[in-house]
């Protein structure tokens, strides 16, 4: 059986193809990381984005990569420069997501072990990544940057570009995004509500993941 594609520009496509929903996770207590991920796996979700917004993010990524290497593909989100990119790779992140782009970040992503899903909000930003060979992008903040209509418009001049829109997407709107031909997955915080995480309501999170997947795939 052939192994995973080696080109980082191809590997990020393989990550997005693993599931239509990517929870955008902020970890405040590293002890929550493992039971939270196990709940999401129980609900059918395999790709997780842990944002580098708290001091607990990198330890959480390391914990998940160590304890659930076969169950989940863990990526680091909110990566804004090569230094934080390298830190994410050092703890085992399998992919990296940025909220926006810079030339340095795009260049590093071409050489990195963990593939980059660069964030864009405009056609001009898309063209910067496109020029370097990127064909998969995070569209952020999706709801503010034009939502469904913007993605439909981008499909014309960039028919081979695919997206993971994030930002303002809810459980009841995810299905509309996934219906677009150029959307491979959607990301959102609704899959890991802060109140359920703080209360350790892991069965509730598993149920929410399962129901969200069912509504998107039906």
Topology:
Elements: H1 8-16, E1 21-25, H2 33-42, E2 47-51, H3 57-67, E3 73-77, H4 82-90, E4 95-97, H5 103-111, E5 116-117, E6 119-120, H6 123-131, E7 136-139, H7 147-155, E8 162-165, H8 171-178, E9 186-188, H9 194-198, H10 202-217
Parallel strand pairs: 1-2, 1-9, 2-3, 3-4, 4-5, 6-7, 7-8
Helix pairs in contact: 2-10, 8-10
Quick rundown:
This protein has a six-stranded parallel sheet with strand order 5-4-3-2-1-9, with helices on both faces. A three-stranded parallel sheet has the order 6-7-8.
Strand proportion: 15-25%
Give the ordered list of helices and strands: HEHEHEHEHEEHEHEHEHH
Q: Which fold name fills CATH's third level, the topology?
A: TIM Barrel
Radius of gyration: 16 Å
CATH superfamily: Aldolase class I
Assigned CATH class: Alpha Beta
Spatial order of the strands in the main sheet?
5-4-3-2-1-9
User: Percent helix among the residues?
Assistant: 40-55%
The averaged pLDDT comes out at: 95
Give a quick account of the main beta sheet: strands, pairing sense, barrel closure.
6 strands, parallel
Q: How many domain regions? A: 1
Structural class: alpha/beta
CATH architecture classification name:
Alpha-Beta Barrel
Kindly report how far apart the N and C termini lie: 31 Å
Shape: globular
Q: Count every beta strand, where a strand is a DSSP E run of 2 or more residues.
A: 9
